[in-house]
Amino acid sequence: MSRIIWKGAITFGLVNIPVVLRPASRSQTLDLDLLDVRDMAPVGYQRINKSTGKPVDKEHIVKGYQYAKDEYVVLNDEDFRQANVEATQTVDIVSFVDVESIPPYYFDTPYYLEPDKRGERGYALLHETMRRTGRAALALVVLRARQHLAAMLVHGDALVLNTMRFADEVLPISELRLPKSAKGKATGAHAREVEMATKLVEDMSEDWEPEQYRDTYRDDLMARIEARIESGKTHQLTQPAAEEEAPRQSAKVIDMVALLRKSLDHRGKGGKAEEEPARGKSRAKAEAEEAEEETESEGRARRKAPARHAAAKKQASTKRATAPAKRASTATKHAPAKRASHAPAARKSASTARRKQAA
Hints:
The chain is an alpha+beta fold. The chain has helices at 77-83, 120-133, 191-204, 216-231, 256-265, 283-358, and strands at residues 6-12, 15-23, 35-36, 41-42, 63-68, 71-75, 90-98, 107-115, 135-143, 146-155, 158-164.
């Protein structure tokens, strides 16, 4: 079980529910040490006095607030505790809101709320009331010397406290350049695209099973580390691989309907893909990339087709142009022969006429 990091009470109105706070998440990042590559000795983090340049022991370090240049007020843990004892020991519910009305980018870190001694009845009452009303409780709580806005949510039989960002910590969406949803716009979604995308979403829908998703990057990095240990090359630095410069791609007009259709065609029976994509790549992303490649191939084929048709058309016109010339040359070739064949007959007729006249 995770450790208790805070003890206090939930308060709303005159209700006071003793609770303890436990972490609801844990970091899976690799714990890496800094080393001196010459002798593999660990390199520590030193706290340096900026005036003398010398290291400072931890017991000599305090927190201070600078109220003027180089002038500080020293504060310790007791100052933070006494600043507002009530605030540091309560989850003070200030209002209840519809769960769906909270934008997801406001959420930060989740914690589990567990009833403390004599807090079971109040805990159960609050949990059941929030479950029936479908509301989330907005509260203020001080954790680690900082006040947080927090949302208390119902999940199963538990209450979850999720710290949130304050409004001034969230950048406004209005500063983004976003596509308009109006129909007919070049950047908007068309009805046919939405229809096919909806079919794809329904085909890929499944029950929420977070256990099937893993940090594949961490797994792959650990596999490299274990392979280095097995090979005995623990102190050998990996040389950078030669990277080929990717060719610059021109702007492409993506046929979304074709991509969606191919994505649907590539889905196997039962909503599963026919072939599993590479590990660490989502199924939808792999299908979209494959569909895009096929669409590009078809586009190249269509661009080549007009050229082939033009060449065929040119060849046909050349044949038609040479045909009359051939016929003309043939006629010219036989014409003299024909005239030559009739010439002796004409001369014979003329001589016969002259003899008749003389007689």
